[in-house]
Design goal:
230 residues; alpha+beta; SH3 type barrels; 28% helix; 16% strand; globular
């Protein structure tokens, strides 16, 4: 889906700052959020990682930018808990007040009024699956990515839409996040690594010699030849 979470390839956010010897958690509450994610899955608040990722995508844009990594997790978790009916908004406000917080301060969660229901368990271990259909593309094939956005979850970033690239690896079939996040089944699809030249992504302003590799699902791709653009 289009949203503030889709920051890849965007200008204006500065370099990625890397912290030497960065700890797993900077504060104790972050570790608690990490533990709560597993407990929420066990309680049935969500069924798969794609559903969880989509909940994070839907949090308030200001919270996404300002609340940090585990702050986003917490807002996504609240969204899922409320959509599953496990926790109510008034219960959360009462608990915040009991702990000395401000219950009127806007949180990052944005639960849907009619949320998707993901009731089925995973079909197997991990996310790799078997499909009867043969892969459409092979190593060396030139492809173009889909140029349109979608209203739900997707693993095709906005900066790579409608761009030309080259398939370098076929990875077999994997659970399709675009359906799995919304309760429409796993619908396994073939997955490929596609390499894009920086110029094809960002034009002449791209840093010379830049290439980007993306793992992309078959429904995102169509065959491309030079004659298509003439």
């Amino acid at each position: 889906m289009d949203g503030i979470h889709d920051l890849g390839g965007r200008a204006g956010f500065g370099p990625v700052e890397r912290e030497a010897d960065e700890p797993a958690f900077h504060e104790r509450w972050e570790a608690r959020v990490f533990a709560m994610i597993g407990a929420a899955a066990a309680a049935g608040a969500y069924r798969n990682a794609d559903q969880f990722r989509h909940a994070i995508e839907r949090i308030r844009p200001d919270a996404y930018l300002c609340d940090g990594y585990y702050g986003r997790w917490l807002a996504g978790l609240e969204t899922l808990l409320r959509e599953a009916g496990i926790v109510q908004a008034d219960e959360l406000r009462a608990r915040i007040a009991a702990l000395g917080g401000d219950p009127t301060r806007p949180g990052g969660a944005r639960p849907a009024e009619a949320p998707d229901r993901v009731a089925y368990p995973p079909a197997g271990e991990g996310n790799r699956r078997s499909v009867a259909a043969a892969p459409v593309f092979a190593e060396g094939d030139r492809v173009r990515t889909a140029s349109f956005g979608v209203s739900g979850h997707t693993r095709l970033p906005a900066y790579a839409r409608g761009r030309r690239g080259t398939v370098t690896t076929w990875h077999g079939a994997w659970v399709f996040p675009d359906s799995n996040a919304h309760g429409r089944g796993e619908q396994p699809q073939h997955l490929y690594t596609v390499v894009f030249d920086g110029v094809d992504l960002w034009g002449a302003a791209a840093e010379p010699g830049t290439a980007v590799s993306l793992d992309l699902f078959e429904p995102y791709l169509t065959a491309w030849t030079a004659e298509v653009d003439t």
